């Protein structure tokens, strides 16, 4: 890996911007107030900020690459590569792609969640950013729990969240009908059936519905990848678009 010497910029160090030079050593900061030494790449950062790579813990901008407008779908691999280049160009070196497994067809369907997870795993060695899978599970989606628990057990999910969008306001119901191509009556009927079969949760309850107990247990056994990323965020170096994530 190329060692880099950066001078002339304002560098974020311990929460403050300071004028200093630095030299990287592999993936780590080798020295501050440094001389160029044996660094093979010299960068003049005059007028620029020198910052660690940004960690995006909750991103769904990749959906725009997958479906730039309603009815227009791009192949998942092409969309992920394009999203990866945009992330790197904006200083994001670790990205969690958040996909919702919901009742909706298209981008938030079970099929799309499976396709996205498979594509991330297959393309990860080629992507410049450290790319992770963030699954957002709708609380009504009880049929999906066995498969999700299997993903958790296999360590395929890097970040997991529970969503509850069943109480959809009228304006949102109209938007959902427009996005899915369903009639408003069909959307209302679908949501009403979801609410009717959803487990009841007492007001202000800190507990989860009993059907989710297995998922909660599986989540508790997961490695908290986000915490690992936060701990490693100090080990960074500016990178070219072709380099691997810090």
Mind explaining what this structure looks like?
The protein has helices spanning 62-66, 76-89, 110-123, 145-153, 170-180, 184-197, 213-220, 225-232; strands spanning 4-7, 10-13, 16-19, 22-25, 28-32, 41-44, 49-50, 54-59, 92-101, 130-138, 159-163. A four-stranded mixed sheet has the order 5-4-1-6, with no helix packed on it. Strands 8-9-10-11 form a four-stranded parallel sheet, sandwiched between helices. It is built from eight helices and eleven strands. The chain is 34% helix and 23% strand. Strand 10 (130-138), helix 4 and strand 11 (159-163) form a beta-alpha-beta unit. It is elongated. It has two domains: 1-52, Urease, subunit C, domain 1; 54-165 and 199-232.
- For the terminal residues, how far apart are their CA atoms? 11 Å
Tell the overall outline.
Answer: elongated
Largest sheet: 4 strands, mixed
Number of domains: 2
Question: Rg from C-alpha positions?
Answer: 22 Å
Tally of strands: 11
Query: Quick check: average pLDDT?
Result: 75
Helix content: 25-40%
């Amino acid at each position: 890996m190329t060692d880099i010497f950066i001078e002339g910029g304002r560098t974020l160090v311990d929460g403050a911007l300071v004028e200093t030079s630095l030299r990287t050593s592999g993936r780590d900061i080798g020295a501050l107030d440094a001389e160029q030494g044996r660094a093979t790449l010299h960068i003049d950062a005059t007028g620029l900020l020198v910052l660690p790579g940004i960690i995006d813990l909750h991103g769904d901008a990749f959906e725009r690459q997958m479906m730039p407008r309603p009815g227009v779908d791009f192949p998942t691999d092409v969309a992920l590569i394009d999203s990866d280049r945009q992330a790197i160009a904006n200083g994001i070196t670790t990205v969690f792609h958040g996909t919702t497994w919901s009742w909706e067809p298209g981008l938030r369907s079970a099929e799309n969640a499976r396709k996205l997870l498979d594509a991330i795993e297959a393309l990860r060695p080629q992507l410049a950013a450290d790319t992770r899978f963030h699954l957002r599970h709708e609380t009504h989606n009880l049929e999906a729990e066995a498969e999700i628990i299997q993903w958790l057990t296999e360590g395929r999910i890097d970040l997991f969240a529970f969503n509850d969008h069943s109480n959809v306001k009228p304006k949102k119901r109209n938007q959902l009908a427009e996005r899915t191509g369903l009639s408003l009556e069909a959307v209302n009927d679908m949501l009403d059936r979801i609410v009717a079969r959803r487990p009841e949760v007492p007001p202000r309850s800190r507990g989860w519905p009993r059907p989710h107990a297995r998922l909660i247990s599986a989540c508790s056994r997961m490695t908290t990848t986000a915490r690992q990323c936060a701990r490693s965020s100090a080990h960074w170096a500016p990178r070219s678009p072709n380099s691997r994530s810090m």
